Amino acid sequence: MELRNTWLRAWLLAVLALSVVGCKRREIPKGPAPQGKRISAYQAMSRNRAYWPNQGWKTKTPAELGIRKEALDKAFAYAFQRTGDEINRKGIRTDGVVVIYRGYLVKEQYARKYKANTSHLAWSMTKSFVNALYGRAIKEGLVSLDDPAAKYIKEIQDPLMRKVTIRQLLNMASGLCWNEGYEASPLKSTVIKMLYTAGRDDMGGFAVKQGMCFQPATHWYYSSGTSNLLMKILSVVLKKKYHSYPWTHLFDVLGMTGVTWERDASGNFVGSSYLHATPRQLAKFGFLYLNDGVWNGKRLFPTNWVKFTDTVPAADPLGIYGAHWWLNVGRPEKNVRPRFPDAPRDTMVASGHWGQFLFVIPSLDLVVVRMGDDREKAFNRNTFLKLLIASLPSQPRKQGGSSK
Questions:
Q1: In this predicted model, what pLDDT tens digit does every residue of 26-37 receive, in sequence order?
Q2: Assuming Cys at both sites, which of 21, 25, 40, 63 could form a disulfide with 311, CB separation 3.0 to 4.6 Å?
Q3: Does domain 42-118+278-403 have CATH number 1.25.40?
Q4: Which of 230, 259, 231, 265 is nearest to 247 (CA)?
């Protein structure tokens, strides 16, 4: 019996030793990157503006701008058709559309109880405002793209997470563990836990606690926790200026009066989800990017910030994302088509849950806002853009991109 116990003890110790060795040798994997080069379709457009819409948008008729009214009406008819049933919120459910062409409001329409001055929850369009605040802070020299997040967040102790930079966070290529499922996987969804249960007191801190699933810059994954971590970092960077900064350095400058931005229990803005604005206000925000980060003669973003925003990182295999904006670049070197094949490749999109879209197309001098309440993907963005673009005056549109 003693011999048997000795043998069993030795066997268990050997298994334990192998397990420990195995754990020590286990490394967090790299993602499938590099998928390709960093690639951008952005082309800065220099245009002289007759006015800036701080006090509101000036209007022109479609005819005054050479727009074919009948074709424009078809685009609006598509957007505002009511399909499906209202009880289950199925089908196309557009709440508002605003079209800004060459700096003028040419057509807008609203449905249900929405009007021009009614704020709408932007959902994940809010993420693109995170980009803007970093553009402003970097322009002021307060923070750098290649600063590690751990420089500002003391809770970051994991050696691998300490390597994650602000650039990688903006590109959604940090390697952070996350599950962005909403209705499709509510029990496994990290974002639902963050917004409504375990993480709601400190959403950025909650993101930190998720740990790392991939090495930085090797895996692209869309993560709301990433945006809230960025806002937590910004709170440390800006200190006492944090709560007024979105207004003094962005909203007030653009004349976006009446914007609401909710905060979590720690006092940080919910960068993933909770900005409220009217379609006209959101169009002003898009107009800033349309004009390469220049507003009324003043450069608000660093030179090439919008180009950085419109550049696909190597970790993105489909060419669909830049720096907290969705893109239409694709991967030409891999024969991956853009998401919206009937729109120019320089199309940028701030996109939110349940059908919130802000389209910025510099090559067409076009900004379009579409707000909705879609509970299924019945609204086809490519179809809408195709109809809308067909109404514009014929003009050459460069579709080329640049690799870097």
A1: 478 888 766 678
A2: 40
A3: no
A4: 259
